[in-house]
Amino acid sequence: xxxxxxxxxxxxxxxxxxxxxxxxxxxxxxxxxxxxxxxxxxxxxxxxxxxxxxxxxxxxxxxxxxxxxxxxxxxxxxxxxxxxxxxxxxxxxxxxxxxxxxxxxxxxxxxxxxxxxxxxxxxxxxxxxxxxxxxxxxxxxxxxxxxxxxxxxxxxxxxxxxxxxxxxxxxxxxxxxxxxxxxxxxxxxxxxxxxxxxxxxxxxxxxxxxxxxxxxxxxxxxxxxxxxxxxxxxxxxxxxxxxxxxxxxxxxxxxxxxxxxxxxxxxxxxxxxxxxxxxxxxxxxxxxxxxxxxxxxxxxxxxxxxxxxxxxxxxxxxxxxxxxxxxxxxxxxxxxxxxxxxxxxxxxxxxxxxxxxxxxxxxxxxxxxxxxxxxx
Length: 376
What we know:
Distance between the termini: 48 Å
Structural class: mainly beta
Radius of gyration: 21 Å
Low-confidence stretches: 1-6
């Protein structure tokens, strides 16, 4: 007698996710401005582009049973389109950012600024300044990018990289982050965070802030900046007061921290559950803030958090590769990706909150596309 195994039940990821295996661990993922492609920066400098066009989009596979009214989604029938490689080797530190509607601004191994299109075409750009690029970021609503070469900052028009403004901060800039409305830019240089007016690069605040920072994030109202630290702490900057405080006691380095505009909360990784506080009641000085509890505590560290830009939920990535979706301030959890042992190293949402891009330490990259019916 031939023994047959029962068919395995499909997971949620099988129905709404796409996965690729790249040649090296993924260090950064990000959408271009139009949401037509996802760039994946890999360890060692490789860059791969994942197409967003999907012949078997989940919305096309949904049907409603007329007799029961139940909504179902059929599994994919064909393999996903392969990733597109770009003939460029990226510098490790600055990473990349969106450039214009379709492309990305990247920094090659020589420190030169380079444009990569959504189809993987590489365009060398004229050297606009002396020295290698040390940091860069897109500036929303300004149609520009901000580029640091050591202590020299330049605001460049996205269309042709024409210089719009410049300044010199005196110390090498290692990180840049623009506020969501593109009004202000935060620059990490030395042991301080400098706040600049994006349009003119005029200094608005110069705030001492110690620590080895891994990320910078603005609050939607531009009153706060947070930064995750390798020293197992979180730096909280009050921009109006021009002061910074350090929240210590995390079990692990805080690899990511971000604000949810929809839920008006701050969330951070580095603990055995999502750490968070309600805005504007953040911990500062002797004030402990107004904490919120999201998801359930466990035995695995949270490596990455990414609030959905249009809903009051947060994607959570764990050290074992598990990815969940949690309503902020609630214990509920929806498993998106089963943990396979390799940690979640990168997360990014599309601007409409419909797509979630993921990167893993074993070289996997994934995109989850959420049908609208899931959020009704």
